[in-house]
Design a protein that fits this description.
The chain is of the alpha+beta class. Helices cover 20% and strands 20% of the residues. It contains five helices and seven strands, in the order E-H-H-E-E-E-H-E-H-E-E-H. It has helices at residues 69-78, 87-96, 142-151, 171-183, 217-220; strands spanning 59-62, 102-106, 109-117, 125-133, 161-167, 188-194, 207-213. The protein has a seven-stranded mixed β-sheet. Helix 1 (69-78) packs across helix 2 (87-96). The longest helix has 13 residues, at 171-183. The termini are close together.
């Protein structure tokens, strides 16, 4: 399945910096670690959004429905530099792939999204297509919490491997998935997959297939290891 195409530098990998092995900054936007229990689907976070007195906004996660497609499309459109698909595409994702997609809501507003699917010929693999986190929900490890939420679902009970594709210069995405691999106590490997000339006709940087193997959802839910308090903003992830 062809993924969305993020903005990236042209040129082959030999001319690019090697993909980092540790989370890196991404133009002031970085993924962070979070000490919250990943099983807890509510999270108190500061927000400029209007809420009743003495009540912080509550973040929750759920499977999408077809009616969420337009809101998901709007979130992606506002969460640049994500590549936009058609609204119809997002409706199909919300409808036919709901078991492996997730929306995050802040009070009743969609502020986070992951589209993913299990390839028919690799039922042990969850392939992540796109991750988006709205401005109001950034800075609290929401992307990693959505990934954890997906892996805890019944539809992903047989998943032991997570994959996605990332361009060499997409530091925010490397940071997210390196950090998630560390949280899962799992190895992260990568190799060129969709190549600049062979697949993109020279119009797009090579996409690297990133694989996090031997994962265990119970590990993602374990908060026994102390992690740094969130202080940095999250950036949207695109591939």
């Amino acid at each position: 399945m062809t993924t969305g195409q993020p903005r990236g530098r042209d040129g082959d990998f030999a001319q690019m910096p090697a993909p980092p092995c540790k989370p890196l900054a991404a133009s002031g936007k970085r993924y962070d670690n979070d000490a919250d229990d990943a099983k807890d689907t509510s999270l108190r976070i500061p927000s400029h959004m209007n809420t009743p007195p003495n009540r912080a906004p509550v973040l929750s996660f759920r499977a999408p429905s077809a009616e969420d497609g337009a809101d998901v499309w709007d979130l992606i459109r506002k969460s640049g530099p994500l590549d936009e698909n058609s609204m119809y595409c997002n409706i199909i994702q919300c409808d036919h792939f709901a078991d492996t997609c997730v929306v995050a809501e802040l009070d009743d507003e969609i502020v986070g999204w992951i589209s993913a699917f299990i390839p028919p010929d690799a039922t042990d693999t969850l392939f992540v297509w796109q991750v988006a986190v709205g401005e109001a929900a950034r800075g609290r490890g929401v992307a990693k919490k959505m990934l954890t939420h997906l892996l805890e679902r019944e539809a992903c009970s047989g998943v032991t491997r997570l994959q996605t594709t990332i361009t060499a210069d997409n530091e925010a995405s490397w940071a997210l998935f390196n950090s998630f691999a560390e949280k899962m106590d799992a190895e992260l490997d990568y190799e060129p997959h969709y190549k600049r000339d062979a697949h993109f006709g020279g119009q797009h940087a090579t996409e690297y297939m990133v694989t996090i193997g031997d994962i265990d959802a119970d590990t993602a839910s374990d908060d026994s290891a102390a992690q740094a308090a969130p202080t940095e903003k999250e950036a949207p992830h695109a591939n």
